Amino acid sequence: MNELYGHLGASLYVPATHKSLDSILSEGCHTARSLIICTEDAVIDSEVTWAVRRLIKALKTAPLDVPFLRFVRPRSPLVLQQLIASPEAMARIDGVVVPKFDAETAPGWQVVLEMAPTLAVMPTLETLALFRDSTTDALLEAIQALSNPVIALRIGANDLLGAIGLKRQSGQTIYDTPLRGTLERIITTFRPAGYELAAPVCDLIDETDTLSREIAQDIAWGFYAKTCIHPSQIDVVEAHFTHALSRQKAQADALLHSDTAVFRHDGQMMEQTCHATWARRISSLNINATS
Description:
Blueprint: H1 5-8, E1 10-15, H2 21-27, E2 34-38, H3 48-61, E3 69-73, H4 77-84, H5 87-90, E4 95-98, H6 106-113, E5 121-125, H7 133-144, E6 153-155, H8 157-163, H9 180-190, E7 197-198, H10 208-220, E8 226-228, H11 234-256, E9 262-265, E10 268-271, H12 272-290
Parallel strand pairs: 1-2, 1-8, 2-3, 3-4, 4-5, 5-6, 6-7
Antiparallel strand pairs: 9-10
Helix pairs in contact: 4-6, 7-9, 10-11, 11-12
């Protein structure tokens, strides 16, 4: 596991056009452990050139050391190339989020990423490739071909819903939509290959109950990072992660420190052969989350 995964927590997306971009890059935003500055869908076409130039300028003057992670979501390989061309800006980010990554777009991104081979990446899974097993397998191969360190794979649920002509409605978690099967395919394809996943955004900003139900399901499916689009969502996500990891850490510690093959703990069967991988993963996440 890339150690940065456990530090992502609730990742707040911020448009590169945000009026307070300079202060956000310097001081953070609310309690977000990680920020993703977006130059892609959050910026209209006519403002891209200005937004990218403004972002690079702001990064150059931001403090080098801050108590949160900073990522950029470049709109295209060209924008990524512009970012890489500025060493001062690159020194102030922890990686990039690569949008709409699949086997077809991979070559264009890869040729630019090879200019910065130590730059950490988070490819976003959000194209039609996720709807078929064969193209999902091809996408996995494209990710495995990257030489850059991969922190995690992000899931772009809004793009996937848009591809089938849907928009999430009030009261719906992502698991109540037709994407439930796609999420199952993503988990069973990419996690056995060693990749951590960030849960998709909940775009129902004022529905805390719906968000809470979704996070509970995220955790049940093994997501320990989640995209947020509004500061009000951050504390809700973090509270769920903290509570879940505290509970699961006790279980994981009991397993990792036991020399018994099978035993009962807090009403559950614990089995070394089946649960050791999960226990090591949870133990690592707890260490990262509290450091």
